[in-house]
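Check these lines:
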Amino acid sequence: MFNSCDEAQEEEKVESTYSFLIGAYTDNEEQGIGLLNFDPENNLIQTKIIAPGIKNPSFVIANRAQTFVYAVEETGGENGGKVVSFKLDRQTNTMERIDTQFSFGSGPCYLSLDPKEEILVVGNYSGGNFSAYKIKSGNLDHVQTYQHEGQSINPDRQGSAHVHSVVFHPNGKQLLVGDLGTDKIHLYDFNPGYAVPFNNSNPPHFEVSAGAGPRHLTVHPNGSPVYLIHEMTAEIGVYAYNSGTLSEIQTLPLTEDDFVGGVGAAEVRLSPNARFLYASNRGDANDISVFEVGKDGRLTFVERVKSGGEMPRNFIITKDGKYLLAAHQASNNITVFERNPRTGKLTKLNVEGEFHKPVYFFGLD
């Protein structure tokens, strides 16, 4: 049975200051991974670089203990881009580089840790593959690269595979891979004790509508549904997950009926209690759509608000559910919304931060 968490969970604790790692695109050696502190009481955002010299760290995550940080260097070359690991000191908010490994595919753009934090997976967009690494004290040992093949109907964007997300199912037994180039969600059985930890599931993939362009996805904490951003058609797809098999439940637009212009749906996130879902849309839209999650997992549209900048590639909801922060790659700004935990609606606050091409947030305790 589909259960919804109690909305009171989001009102138990409100932080005085919120901290986030910032992933970004870089133009020089002084830029790199950033740290953002948001103080709502004083209506203040502060940002600074804490790991300079990392080229295009467009995706950055930390382990649960927040002692290690992992980032991509979204670059290309003979051995692809790179994956970098750091030791994080939260007392001083400093990072020390531990290891750098090739990603074995160009354009690494997504990272995931398995539930036991023993395996790191990187998705390579331009390479159309993903690679896996065993972790030991922050050091990375490459154990597997899995190459996707195929294409779809858009010759400009889908002439080959483009892995855009790698997400572990909450059951810890499967990896879901969103592939924009092939219009598929690939599924892999995960066996961390094996020399090669990922193998095709049965069935090995689920094909979405042609030209949709799978991007980021998130799985409901109960294990179903799976919510998938259709980047190219600016939609949110809802897919039931049943013992490793996906089936379509619902597809909803991220634009109004009369919208005219370019689109580029980007991020999808659930509220901490999984009662509401949020999705961003770039292009000429530059907005965030809000949906209520029903008891059966289906979505009901709530509202659509302007994000306050250009190209909202990423946003994040604070762990207490009170605020949403949106990062804008093209306008170099970060906006803040107060979030109503009962209705899911967003109210833009008069506070803004600056950062060079911010494209990802990771929340710190």
